Amino acid sequence: MTLAELRGARRRREDGEAHAGGLHATTADYIRVAVALFIITSIEVAIYYIEGLRGVLVELFLALSGLKFLLVVLWYMHLRFDSRLFSFMFAFGLSMAIALFIAMLATMKAGLL
Amino acid sequence: MAQRTHAVEHLETSTGLDNRKLAMWLFLASEALFFGSLIATYLLYRGQSTEGPYPSDVFNIPFTSVSSFILLMSSTTMALAVGAAHRGRLHQMRTWLLCTALLGISFLAGQAFEFTEFVHKGLTLSTNLFGSSFYLLTGFHGAHVSVGVLILLSLWVMALRGRIGQHNALNVELAGLYWHFVDIVWILIFTLVYLLDPLAEGR
Description:
The structure holds two protein chains of two kinds. By secondary structure, chain A is an all-alpha fold. Chain A has four helices and no strands. The mean pLDDT of chain A is 82. Chain B has seven helices and no strands. The interface between A and B is large, with 59 and 65 residues.
């Protein structure tokens, strides 16, 4: 059996175990998400020091942190694979928090900057 | 849909879902409101301090970036622990649980170091509005991380004694949900407080 076949067999076994345990993400998936999180955080810190991007930094930071947020919630917290009721409950709480956040800032005429 | 409910289809509850998991998601939704209020309060008071030190006088972005990375990686090890618990790989589960707890402790040590530095630079809870709102927000987050570390260490000890296995992997999953939530709150704090604050001062 070649190395590639061994790796394939291992991946299939992990997939099978994951599905048997009610999970739909494998160890390789978690590692891929970790690499993505590392890259996004590195980009955030790098662009913080680039003077030319000052005008769009707020938008860039919000987009990048939103991406990290989604990666953790969908993959690590399994909302991508779990019951939609959990997603609905969390989205409801999050919407309420965002509404409260906007209402507070709007009432006091404050902003993100 | 059949695939999505695969893990819970055998439960005899009115929703077909485990009530403990449902309760955890409800708790996390309420926590989102709690931290949403704290972050909004911080933003409301931003730039309102009449005397220093100001954020740019105390923040050390490279140091906090490393702390953030540590917490992000602890989420990875937590996900690996949950995966190992569901697959019945108990040795791996114990290892990843301990790694997660140690990474959490490292993050807390970093926060303690950061707070100490800030106090040495003259920023205390009562110095100005920035100090009050900053310590309140990050302090509450740190308290949540501390609770998470205690839960993880308890699970690790229980696992060592053979009281956590594949049959009750949900206990590890619930701890994981809490831990990941603490992580996503920090993702927002890092961006809105640490990265955007110096930009606000520059305007």
